[in-house]
Design brief:
homodimer; alpha/beta; seven-stranded mixed β-sheet; two-stranded antiparallel sheet
Chain lengths: ~375, ~375
């Protein structure tokens, strides 16, 4: 818990430290933490010029509030807007950010702040990783998905016509501010998609968290602050532990991809337009749960419990029936984690336990499409 | 010294290790080392698919030789050509590399090899830093400048219409192979430009190296193997020490920018078309030497000795008379190392000794242009 010495009202703050030696950084979580941005940033960066990258939707809601906080602590922000949506997570958008930063003559001390969801965070992070060979980066995630997942861990990047996140870099932020109050303006569909990743942490790492979500699902969907902050903090803690142990995904970090192998394939096959990322992951997690049970790695009842919770949440759990196995297979084999047509697949062994196996892209694709046909 | 156990003739090999913990890597120097590429790469990367990035000029001379060596050790290279010249060191060229790599479905285990000078090395390195968030990178520099400078230290990047190397990343290679025999096909002008950087190492770090170059300049220009390999090795050693002490240029690494502040400005103001990088740096070093003497940091006779050696080499030492102070000032202030119109300028205090001072871009620009007008 942290309380600032300024006029800011004493508030509940959850703080998680991502331990990466001299590149360690805090994640500060709580309702209204946006108003503390200037003060908290001043603790790690000398006040001066900075750039705020956001999209028009989020800008309208929170840009003024954030800039007011920044200016109150002596920062002088410029604002860069990227059109809203995954299809703008491209090298062209990053190139646009470079152009504006260079025109404005921002130097390598000036931090870049990402205000928005995962798209804004990922592409701003990539710009921060590569502008002048790296400038300080601050994440101010405004979606649940970004707060529990993409803002933690330093993965940045953009999509390519041939696949998601194929271009990118590892670049850790100096500060993450997750204002749970911003979730009040989040469309319910995105809230649900974010909770899918929350459930994922329970499945792969923390049976108690999974049970808590089963218990408190309604409170979470109602954005009850008493549950929300603690759950976001727990997810960040879990991800921070994984990232601290294996920053560059040599091995262990790959457990975070539970549900993502097929999830990414489905997103790609449906042109990133039918499902939100979390929705596609929900289908991928349901598939991975059943696949784990069918290989005897986990009891069918436990797999069912995972799928049941995703259904209660209102997330999709069925592979769409119009997917083509061959095309899906090609997409899976083209994943950047694939090698030689084999994919490192994350299976569950029960709640909070996983195992990796190399599985052929073909087996996953055929099993997924066959499963879809059964419904 | 290393000799391989294969059929390769026993040869003199100079080996320098860049010490960066688990990211340490060897620089292997010697005539004919190109033929050992496959074998040496197999020691650090599992043989398989890989990509060779080069330009048409270098490709015609050395691509087949390199690919033969790679295939001889079980690698399966694809070849990507980028048009020759600094003006192709752009994000567009990197984007083209991404496209080819993705079309060819190269995975994150497949190394990228840069065969060519600094342009090819810098942009291939940036592609390697960002393709699938980072793949193994091998430098096979074929210019003297690349062999003593750009291939060592992990700086990668591309130019932007507003300046050089403004977009980039730090990404260390896994292996550097500097074949001194490739310098036989290097145009004399490029050889001279490369020797400017060799002289720079003497000035900033090693008075004995400087004296040796004074002594052996003719042998170096004649590519006498007895001198050449040892001098390249010494430069790599010096750069490796600096990089090992300060990989990301927090501070000390900036001494390598001796002569580069004005050099970059001149390159920019002459549209990167009038001077080779080393030529512009030669002008910048001459300026920095005189500037150091005028501030009383080093004896005028020592500054003169530096300028005299650059002249003997045949490199330009005078600021061109058509430069405009205001425009040059803007270019200097726009350098990514500048902050608030101030530039961290590297002065010499004698041979092998330097000091930093913050100097206004305006003072540098006015002094440079005034100096040019005197001639």
């Amino acid at each position: 818990m942290a309380a600032l010495s300024s006029g800011v009202e004493m508030s509940m703050r959850e703080v998680v430290t991502v331990a990466l030696g001299e590149r360690s950084y805090p994640i500060v979580i709580g309702a209204g933490v946006l108003d503390e941005c200037g003060e908290r940033l001043a603790a790690v960066c000398r006040p001066g010029r900075c750039a705020l990258v956001t999209n028009p939707v989020v800008a309208r809601l929170y840009a003024e509030q954030l800039k007011e906080s920044l200016m109150g602590s002596g920062f002088d922000p410029i604002q860069i807007e990227i059109a809203d949506g995954e299809r703008y997570k491209t090298l062209d958008s990053v190139s646009h950010i470079y152009d504006v930063l260079l025109e404005a003559k921002l130097d390598r001390k000036a931090p870049l702040l990402a205000l928005g969801g995962g798209v804004i965070g990922d592409l701003t992070g990539f710009a921060a990783a590569t502008y002048l060979r790296g400038v300080p980066f601050v994440q101010v995630p405004t979606t649940l998905l970004a707060q529990v997942d993409s803002s933690v861990g330093g993965k940045t990047g953009v999509n390519h016509p041939l696949g998601k996140n194929l271009i990118g870099a590892f670049h850790q932020p100096v500060l993450v501010l997750s204002d749970s109050a911003t979730l009040r303006t989040l469309p319910r569909r995105e809230l649900v998609a974010g909770l899918v990743e929350v459930i994922k942490y329970g499945v792969i790492l923390d049976a108690a968290l999974f049970a808590r979500i089963e218990e408190d699902l309604d409170a979470l969907l109602a954005l009850d602050e008493r549950v929300l902050g603690a759950v976001i903090r727990r997810c960040c803690e879990l991800k921070a532990e994984v990232v601290g142990a294996d920053e560059r995904e040599a091995d262990y970090r790959a457990i975070l991809n539970f549900g993502h192998t097929l999830g990414h394939g489905i997103e790609s096959e449906t042109q990133y337009s039918r499902y939100l990322h979390g929705e596609a992951v929900s289908i991928g997690m349901s598939f991975a749960a059943h696949f784990s049970a069918s290989r005897g790695y986990c009891p069918p009842a436990v797999a069912d419990r995972v799928v049941r919770l995703l259904r209660r949440l209102g997330a999709p759990t069925e592979v769409p029936t119009d997917l083509q196995a061959r095309s899906l297979q090609a997409a899976l084999a083209g994943d950047k984690k694939a090698a030689g047509g084999q994919v490192k697949f994350v299976f569950m062994e029960g709640l909070g336990r996983t195992r990796f196996e190399m599985v052929s892209a073909r087996e996953i694709a055929e099993r997924a499409v066959a499963g879809a046909a059964e419904h």
